[in-house]
Known about the structure:
Blueprint: E1 15-18, E2 25-26, E3 29-30, H1 34-43, E4 48-52, H2 59-68, E5 78-80, H3 81-93, E6 98-102, H4 105-113, E7 117-119, E8 128-131, H5 139-150, E9 154-157, E10 163-166, E11 169-172, H6 174-185, E12 190-191, H7 197-204, E13 209-213, H8 216-225, E14 230-233, H9 240-244, E15 254-256, E16 269-272, E17 275-278, E18 281-286, E19 289-292, H10 298-312, H11 319-329
Parallel strand pairs: 1-4, 1-13, 4-5, 6-7, 6-8, 8-9, 9-12, 13-14, 14-15
Antiparallel strand pairs: 2-3, 10-11, 16-17, 17-18, 18-19
Organism: Pseudokineococcus basanitobsidens
Keywords: Hydrolase
GO molecular function: hydrolase activity
Amino acid sequence: MADAAGTTLVDDVEVVLLDLDGTVYAGGRPVPGAAEGVAACRARGLPVLFVTNNASLPPEDVADHLRRTGVPASPDEVRTSSQAGARLLRERVGPGARVLVVGGPGTAVACREQGLEPVTSADDGPAAVLQGFGPEVGWAELTEAAYAIRAGALWVATNTDTVLARERGLALGNGSLVAAVRTATGAEPLVAGKPQRPLLEGAAAGRRALVVGDRLDTDVAGARAAGLPSLWVSTGVDDVRRLLDAAPHERPDHLGADLGALHRAPAATRRDDHGWRCGDAVVAVDAGALVARDGGELLDLLRAACAARWEVGDVRVPDDLLERLAPLDAR
């Protein structure tokens, strides 16, 4: 899968940090191109870590799920926001402390690994609350968390993703459940996962890393917060319109259709007398709107449009341009 010119996006990278939901799989469905992209990294001896905000499962179960979706993986290649949250709690409340865990089994496992004692009731006197995603989390669990937080427990959220990519579409994420506890308590949690720094910095461990993901507010913003380059792929939550409207801290360094982009040459976008150019695609600004002057590949058109929109700022994105780019959202 290497680019014919011999220069690829990962040539100077020591580790690739891959998001999972929407990047490698969507629920139980593999994302097209993901298995091939990961296999090509391994073929060249490049370490791959799966770094996920989804805190519901322990690393062993995440690795099993990866294998079922066609991507061989071992537990030591998985980094979860539950692990990052438990490390943060150990630093704050010390080993042996009781922690009220909300979420799937991954939250409790991560706490035990850090020498913390998981509990499930505010009546157990927890020093902290670790709230992560779990598909079975409901009113009773969220209420126990609210009781504990109101009683003075330190509140750590593994992540605040409002939605998750699933086979049927976008489902409620941990951020939506955190919002319920926030509304009930008036408190604000510490956040361990993306876009905060602990999860990605811990995974990179000082190495030259490339962060890959489908979400701008977590994967890309987290990479920027950690001082790491990022690749956005069009296989998950955020669509073309969202990318064009991205705030400065959410703008990726590279754009790709899927993980195959790791093994192709980085695309160069430049400005000339005709507008913003990438490959054969040219986008100009005319009468306050983006205008596609020439053709080219869809991804090059998107890159040129993003370069123009991000540089000019207050410029309209016409419907006809979005319609041309719509196939990227259908992946």
